[in-house]
Amino acid sequence: MTNALVVIDVQESFRARPLWSSVNNPDVVKNVGLLVEAARAAGDPVIWVVHAEPGTGGVFDPESGFVRVVDELTPADGEPVLVKTVHNAFTTTDLQHRLTVAGIRSLTICGLRTEQCVETTTRVASDLGYEVTFVTDATATFPIPHWNGGSTLSAEDVVARTEYALAGRFATIRTVAEIVGG
Fold it and tell me: What burial letters (b/e) apply to 131-165, b meaning 16+ CB within 10 Å?
């Protein structure tokens, strides 16, 4: 067992936001579920990560009740749910320690948002020496308005940019079907 599946921010907080209506990949939860099943069948650890913004009063504030894995997916006994407060899953959690202790050298990464927490975690993992597989169709994102009021970048363009930036530099890009064999 040298690979782990890291599921990032597949949490109810996102679905509680109006922005969810513009999600680019309505199958993200189903696809993440397929990766979870495959990882468990292979005996690979599954590590769940959720994002929290304590004290903000928003949907990412733990007091909101939304900072939990989506209702359709249930962490199994022994699968940790780590709570992060920054964009990557390493800096404010003990993820790296857990991976080191378990002898994990490669990661399969999926979750929300493609270009934000999932990409950032992928980059940090690569910098830490992990071999990373980024499963794009088990990620999701939203259109991004330009910071100065210019045009909006479509979710499809966000995903394409993320793949261009990661492929061959920080990760290998794969599909759910390539991972689960179907």
Answer: ebbbbbbbbbbbeeeeeeeeeebebeebbeebbee
- Helix (H) and strand (E) counts in the chain: 6, 8
Distance, first Cα to last Cα, the chain: 22
**Domain residue ranges of the chain, discontinuous segments joined by +:** 3-180
23: phi then psi, degrees, rounded to nearest 5: -60, 140
Q: Pairing mode, if any, of strands 144-145 and 152-153?
A: antiparallel
CATH no. for 3-180: 3.40.50.850
Cut 0.90: pTM above it? yes
The pLDDT of residue 181 is above 90: no
Q: pLDDT for 87-109, tens place per residue?
A: 999 999 999 999 999 999 999 99
